[in-house]
Description:
Strand content: 5-15%
Distance between the termini: 53 Å
Amino acid sequence: MKIKVKNSRYIRYAVQGLGILFTVIGLFTNYPMANSILLGAIIIMGPVFCGWICPFGTLQDILAKLGSKLGIKKYVMPAKLKKVLAFFRYILLLITILITADFIFNILSLDPRANFIALLGGRTLTVTGWIIIFIFLGSSMFFERPFCNYLCIEGAKFGLLSSARPFTIIRNKETCVGCNRCNRACPMNIDVSSYGQVRSLQCINCMECVAACPVKSTLTVGLIPVKKTLKKSIVIFAATAFAFVVYNGMNPDSLFNLSGSNNSVSSSTVITGETVAGYGDASGMADGVYEGTGTGFKGNMTVEVTVKNQQITGIEVTGTNDDAKWFDRAYNTVVSNIIKNQTVDVDSVSGATYSSMGIKQAVSNALINAGGKNAKAIVNDLPEAGEQKHGRRK
């Protein structure tokens, strides 16, 4: 079962254009099912998001082609250095998984891919965000996809997730003439001509190598070559995995965020329950559900606060752009403490101070707007994300 994709680059260009359009209209942030479908495709076919949809990857490709048109020489990292740098994005991924200190926010705020996607989504960028984007775009005229190759933690996630993918690029060793055009065409600097099956974690399945190959049927895309019975099992497994991910409508932020490392989809979570005796910030308020807004790490955060018998009984975050990892950490603690103590005047969570402050500010705003006389106004005096203010922790 093989697919010939000699004209794949033209199809890919069209899909990349649609990827930018879909990002602008919010398809990957407002419709979780779209992310679920892509996640299923990644499990089966590899990091297709990186090679076919990612807006920042597309922009790097455009600048690379512009550099070629201008006669700018493309440079290739020395083989030994390339092997070392290729692991760097996995090191960054491990750091973001294991370390929850506030300074990680500042590292992620420099992610040019996430900043560019945030820009497409209509949000303003800091000066630093613009500078980082231009640095990597400028570098793309001299090196192929420099950010994707060495620094993108989302690409690292997708590569690991698709390591057992049943569909891959297959090279026919018998017809290969050793021209190395595939190697030169690969934007991820993979030595395609040395593989029988291109299963490198760096591969983004852009199919540029397939399109560049001059010998018919030497590079194709298909199921890994195995015995017929095993191949049927692989097809069934792949179809089941895809159906499972799509059917469950998984929120990718719980595992992999397709749209941006610090540009999460809107969140809708709730903690409810009976509260301790006595009144607090909701004293004197009528029963109802009240909406408020605050400022998290990546912009506005909205909540709905449920008041019953003059007590806060539920807090639901209906919209946030903060990273799921830190938002969840703040939410689970801050919301529970607000309900338990019946006041927004609770401690922030170390390592998630922005999200903590956003939640408290939004709850306070909801209560005050609804006429709560005991609610204390929360002033968010944290510095802007990515900026330092007298050495203060962020």
